[in-house]
Amino acid sequence: MHPAMEELQAKKIETTIENLRRNNMEAVFAKTKEEALSLVRGYLAPGCTVGVGGSVTLDEIGAIQLLRNGNYHFLDRYAEGLTQEERKLIFRQSLCCDVYLMSTNAVTETGALYNVDGNSNRVAALLYGPDSVVVVAGINKIVSTVEDAVKRVKTTAAPANATRLSCSTPCARTGKCVSLMRTGDDEICSGCAAEERICANYVVCGRQRIPGHIKVILVGEALGF
Ligand code: SF4
């Protein structure tokens, strides 16, 4: 990367961290995914109960492997052979875990997290329940404002996730939310009527009442989508 771009990127990260902290979230920077994993490990006490939100990022940094092989009580939603009922139970148990790990659909330079969920187990745990929530996000998730975060989900996160999860939605077929093809339809919640729609609840995390309840690890690499 050109040094000028590196400088620009560093400024963005610095501003984002500063504003997340101003919003009562802990925020730290990890240059690489290896550093990010090491920071995640630091948030996990031996024997603690850990739940995770669906996330490509967590897999990419090696967090799922860490949880499976470490001295933790991992509520493993990805375990082979789980029935629907068993997975549902894990989602419910995850609402009372010690540490909940997840990524985010976007993080704004103004210090907010933005997440859109279909099943909504992830946003439920983000908002209330676990003692601690650790969010890992690559620099590709940084946007300027909440408005840009909304656009990011409709043009990147949702289409990519719908494709990953083999959901039959317009965005999986065209690469963007159907609402963007309708003139003047700029409602946050506008979208398709597909049965497998992955957007149901739209959550913005601003200033937190409990300082440090949410910890954000910003990683200097592109991770997830
Ligand atoms: S509302 Fe439908 S088309 Fe729009 S992003 Fe969500 S799943 Fe895709």
Walk me through this protein's architecture.
With about 220 residues, this protein is of the alpha/beta class. The chain has a single domain, classed as 3-Layer(aba) Sandwich (Rossmann fold). The strands form two sheets. The protein has a six-stranded parallel sheet. A hairpin with a 4-residue loop joins strand 5 and strand 6. The longest helix is centred in the N-terminal third of the chain and has 20 residues. The protein binds iron/sulfur cluster. Iron/sulfur cluster (SF4) binds next to helix 7 and helix 8.
What about the largest sheet? 6 strands, parallel
CATH architecture: 3-Layer(aba) Sandwich
Q: What's the overall geometry?
A: globular
Top CATH class: Alpha Beta
- What is the helix tally? 8
| Mean of all residue-level pLDDT scores | 97
Topology of helices and strands:
Blueprint: H1 3-22, E1 26-30, H2 33-42, E2 49-52, H3 56-61, H4 63-69, E3 73-74, H5 84-94, E4 99-102, E5 106-108, E6 113-117, H6 121-127, E7 132-138, E8 142-143, H7 146-164, H8 170-174, E9 201-205, E10 214-219
Parallel strand pairs: 1-10, 2-3, 2-4, 4-7, 5-8, 7-10
Antiparallel strand pairs: 5-6, 6-9
The structure holds iron/sulfur cluster (SF4).
Summarize the structure.
This protein is 38% helix and 19% strand. The protein is of the alpha/beta class and 225 residues long.
Structure characteristics:
alpha/beta; Rossmann fold; four-stranded mixed sheet; 8 helices; 10 strands; 19% strand; binds iron/sulfur cluster
